[in-house]
Hints:
Elements: E1 2-9, H1 15-28, E2 33-41, H2 46-55, E3 57-62, H3 90-93, E4 99-103, E5 107-109, H4 114-117, E6 127-131, H5 135-142, E7 153-161, H6 162-167, H7 170-181, H8 188-197, E8 201-203, E9 210-211, E10 225-227, H9 241-250, H10 259-284, H11 292-306
Parallel strand pairs: 1-2, 1-4, 2-3, 6-8, 9-10
Antiparallel strand pairs: 4-7, 5-10, 6-7
Helix pairs in contact: 1-2, 7-8
Bound molecules: manganese (II) ion (MN).
Amino acid sequence: xxNLQICLSTDDNYAKYxxxxxKSAQENKNxxxxxxxxILHSHLGHDNMKKLKQCGNVIFxxxxxxxxEPYFNNGVCKNVTIPTLYRLMLPSLLPEVNxxxxxxxxxxxxxxxxxxxxxxxxxxxxxxxxxxxxxxxxMARMGFEQKPxxxxxxxxxxxxxxxxxRRNNIEKKMFDYLxxxxxxxxxxxxxxxxxxxxxxxxxxxxxYNFITINFYFSNDLHPVIAHFAGVKPWKIGFYNIxxxxxxxxxxxxxxxDDKKQIRIKNMVHFxxxxxxxxxxxxxxxxxxxxxxxxxxxxxxxxxxxxYKG
Length: 309
Ligand SMILES: [Mn+2]
């Protein structure tokens, strides 16, 4: 039996989406794998904890939010809630765990996580991640040097070698960076992780963190993880097939107690998704006359207008 250690960070509002991550990962794991979910939270309600426990092997880690208050004076730290900073503390928070796969709560797992979890890291690498959308813009914004080993990653899916991070005091480096820069960060902890780990991250294939609106035309990619980094599937937005998948898994969680309501919601979403799809095709139609790389450029321009991160 192989143990895969996975980490999620959530509050009461996102508990039901955390359940979707757990449920989808359980459904798609190999038989000889045991998934252990470490859930970081500060005040999860009893009912939500009970429901999450029904989804899989879950361990809760309660975190004291006052640790982060110095960074949130006057609410200056923008685009971020405190739970997103929890993952910076993983090396000290889970001293018994040597390697962990951190997952956002706005994604679904569609295949076994074993290959990702067992990715080989070189002695210099602390993490394995996928390059983010608009990575070059992020590189420029952060002032990163253009070198082959440097890239800006999306931290929504992040394999971390906690043991190596502890050995090299990476957690302290992250918090030092946060202390010095928190007022000017656009993507909070993702920027902190990128800045601290720069040059020490293995670049993974896109299928491990497939940003759904980014790859509308690449349905043949068979993602291991589909990440709703732009518009969430529980909000009105663009069509993609993964939105339907999301509701398929949601309905299997203990949070879907009113099945009839879910079915109606599903139907509304389905109709809405189809409408979005039609409009999307009309909008994208000129792209089909272009060669692949020109089409990608145009997609990127449109996407940069619409993508909120
Ligand atoms: Mn996300």
